[in-house]
Design goal:
With 340 residues, the chain is an alpha/beta fold. 42% of the residues lie in helices and 14% in strands.
Length: 340
């Protein structure tokens, strides 16, 4: 995965939380269409987020069913989660689902896992949210064993169909330098969220030390991977972008304020800053991303529109601008080999 000079190229991804403003069937159909469009545009990876409790405009509780359908509609784009909420899953059953979708897709699956944080979801599944880190670690150990085709549950059972090599295909979402160090210690790729909540400092200033801690702790024979999720919404100009995303971002910030993650009384501009947003004309987005402090060490740029829910046509146009103007200006180009 290198350019003509032998330098590593970063992979370009997009992430959807599968949200809309009306009929869920339309919302899901539109989200599937984004995978088709991204595949045609040359995006390397399509990601989905798992939410059991509904978000504004929907949400996706069953990501592997969704990705199985996306696999059938696409040709080369890789398919992953950011994240599957691991403590709310049976890790053996999860490994079976992952292996089935990987087989059907021709080996295009990756998986990102995390602990989640919804008290409602944990209660609904009978899990203790106070043990979420412990449950995540325990579940990840079982998931790794199952995807390595080792016996699980103290029995002679190995999963069917047998899994491909997932050594370099498991990602872990973290929210601290300690979490980054743990992810490195167990050999997971690193996923960094679109924004660091609970901090007044810019997200990239908060997260860059986490990325550095991860790289310092890495000890596996293969190269480490850092996936950087960012809110990126290019449009014709800044006003056009704000017309699509501004109200949603402010409303989301107000929900975060109610949970104590953001201070009270912030305006739209401060809401956009706290969500570490990159928006406006492609040239403005490119200039801002060139100042991003984590991007230089990232191997994957994962673009998303959440917490905004732009119109479907505007979302497609934003994907086009990311793939044809923004990402190429940062050094990305589509892979020539579908098996990259």
């Amino acid at each position: 995965m290198t350019d003509e000079q032998g330098k590593p190229r970063f992979r370009l991804g997009f992430l959807t939380h599968v949200q809309g403003r009306g009929d869920p069937a339309v919302t899901y159909r539109n989200a599937q269409e984004l995978f088709v469009v991204a595949d045609e545009l040359g995006f390397d990876v399509g990601w989905v987020a798992q939410h059991h409790a509904p978000l504004g405009g929907g949400g996706l509780p069953s990501p592997w069913t969704f990705l199985a359908h996306a696999a059938a509609r696409t040709r080369r784009i890789r398919l992953s989660t950011a994240v599957t909420v691991l403590p709310l899953e049976d890790p053996v059953r999860l490994a079976e689902d992952v292996s089935v979708v990987d087989l059907l897709s021709g080996g295009r699956v990756e998986i990102g896992v995390g602990s989640g944080g919804s008290e409602l979801e944990y209660a609904a599944f009978g899990r203790d949210i106070g043990r979420k880190r412990e449950l995540t670690s325990e579940g990840l150990d079982v998931l790794r064993r199952a995807l390595a085709n080792k016996e699980v549950g103290g029995t002679r059972l190995t999963i069917q169909p047998p899994a491909g090599d997932f050594t370099e295909r498991i990602w872990q979402g973290v929210f601290s330098a300690a979490g980054a160090g743990y992810a490195a210690a167990v050999g997971s790729n690193l996923l960094l969220n679109r924004a660091a909540y609970g901090y007044n400092e810019p997200t990239d200033e908060v997260q860059r030390p986490w990325a550095d801690a991860y790289l310092a702790a890495w000890g596996e024979p293969h190269a480490p991977r850092i996936g950087l999720s960012r809110f990126v919404f290019p449009a014709k100009d800044k006003k056009t972008a704000l017309d699509q995303i501004g109200a949603d971002v402010l409303a989301a910030a107000q929900r975060f304020t109610a949970r104590g993650a953001f201070p009270a009384g912030i305006d739209q501009q401060e809401a956009l800053r706290r969500f570490h947003s990159f928006y406006g004309h492609p040239d403005e987005v490119i200039a801002a991303l060139r100042q991003e402090k984590v991007l230089p060490v990232a191997t994957d740029l994962i673009t998303q529109f959440n917490p905004a829910v732009p119109d479907h046509d505007a979302a497609i146009r934003a994907l086009e601008l990311i793939a044809t103007e923004v990402a190429p200006a940062l050094g990305w180009k589509p892979a020539s080999d579908p098996g990259h």
